[in-house]
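fyi for ur records
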Amino acid sequence: MNRNFLLATGFLAGTIIGAGIFSLPYVFVQLGLLSGFFYLVFFAFVYFAIFLMYAKLVQTSKEEHRFFYLAKNFLPKYLSGFASFLVLGGLLLTLTIYLILVPTFFELIADAPGLIPLFIFWAVGSIFIFVKLSWQGLAEFLGALGIIAIVAVIFGVGGTSPLDVPLFKGLDITSFFLPFGPLLFAFAARSAVPKVVDEYREAKRNGRSFPLGKAIFLGTFIPVIVYILFVVGILRLSSDVSPEALNSLSFLSSELLTLLGVMGLLTLWTSYFMIGANVREMLKDDLRTPGWLSALVVLLIPLMLYFVGFQNFLTAVNFTGGVFMGLEGIFVISMWRKAFPKASWRWVSWPLYLVFSVALVYAMVTFVL
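which gave:
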C-alpha cells in the first residue's frame, strides 16, 4: 500500500474529525435519521469539491501554501486582507468552542464548579501552544485516537438497542437550515489540504504517484462513517440528547463516564494547543505581529469570547460554521475560479456558492435574533 497515500488520506480524515461530532446526534434527532444521513453525505460532497479546489490552488505554487498568500494572489486587494483575518477569526472561535465543551466533559469525571476545570484546561492548553510544532503530528494522532476511542465505546455500549428516532420528521424552515452550520463546522479541514498535496508531490517524486482526488475523497468520507457510528451509538443509548451529546448519558456507570470524560478532555486538549499554535504562527509569520501581541491574542481572545457570552455550544457551532466556514468556502471558490477560468467543472461553483451563502445568511439571522 502506498505510504504517502495513506498519510495523505489519514491526515485529512484526522483533521476533519473533531469537536463538531458532538453536535451531530442532536441534529439527527431534530431531522429524523434518514434526513440526517442525507445532509451528512450531501455536505461531505460539498467539502470534497472544496478540498479539490483548494488542492488545485495549492498546486499553483511550489513553495507557498498559506491561505494568506493564495488570498493575496487570487482575490481582489480589498478582499484579501479580510479573507485572511476571517481565517484567524474562525480559528479563535473554534478555540472558544473547545472551552465551552470543557465543563461538559469534566462533569463526567467529577463534580466541580464550572470555572475551575475551565481555567485549568485553559492554562495547560495555553502552555502547550508554545511548545515546538514538531509535536503537531503526535498531537494530531492523539486527538484523532481520542475521538475514535469515544466512538468505539459509545457504539459498543449501545450494542443492538433499538433506535427510538423516526426516520423522517416534518421539516419547517428552522429545521431545514439547522444542519448547515454544524455540518460545515464538522467537515472544516481546509488547513489539512496542503499536507495532502505535499504527500502527493513526494509520492510523485519517488515514483509512487497516486490519484490526488482519490485521497481527498477517502479522507473526506472516512469521517462520514465515524460520524454515523457515533450518532447511531448515542441515539441507541438515548434519543433525548443534548447538543453536547455526552452529557445526556448520565445513566451510564461512573467508570464508563469517567473514561469518556478523560478521552474527551484529551481530544480537546490536543486540538486546543494545535490550533492555538497555528494561530500564533499565522499572526507572527503572515501578519508580522510582534511576538508578545500574537501570544496575547491566542491566549486571551478565546477566554474573552467565552466570558462575553459565547457559552452555548450549538449557537457557537452554528455561528462559526455558518459565518466563518461559510465565508471561507465562498473565498476558496472565488480564488479557484480566478486561478482556473477554463476549468471543465467550473459550473460546480454556482451550487456551491448557494450552499455557503445560505449557511452564512441563516447563521447571521439566527445569531442576531
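The mean pLDDT is 86. thats all i got for now
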